[in-house]
Amino acid sequence: MKKQLVIATGNKHKVLEMREILAPLGYDVISAAECGGMPDVEEDAGTFQGNACKKALETAKALGRTVLADDSGLEVFALGGEPGVYSARYAGEGGNDGRNLAKLLGKMQGVTDRSARFVCVIAVATPEGLVGCAEGEVRGTIAFAAVGDGGFGYDPGFIPDGYDKTFGQLPPEVKNSLSHRANALKNAIKKGLL
One of 70, 71, 97, 155 is an active-site residue; which one? Predict the structure, then answer.
């Protein structure tokens, strides 16, 4: 029998990715929207861990269930860690994946150090409080142009170390085996959070 896991996110792509990663491990992933709705949580903590914990705690209390939340983003070393916790709104409020990536690629023109990392922090909470957190990352480089239509967010602009294709070009099963989110989920399982 599969264990049900509620994910505190309104991002359909994250729900799908977590389903694909966790289904083989015996988890049935459902979104907060599927079991009562997700509260409006302001992600103002300033760190991936702070935002993940805030989402997990507020959603667990609102739903009366154990909840997993993540906060994730891209950190480009030559840009001092930008876009970081502002990855989803890098091009401004109401920005979208295309505008965010276009802004990043524009800022990277002429930059030779293209090293970067995707970071994900997973937080698990019950209505009574925080269970714990786990982090994962994947390192790589920023492409010179967006390539591929797979994935979401900055995927068409990120080439993971050891590959010559962007996450936007790689098949989902390859991306999901080495992504920051996959690594964070594996670490959460190792720590006994799920």
Answer: 71
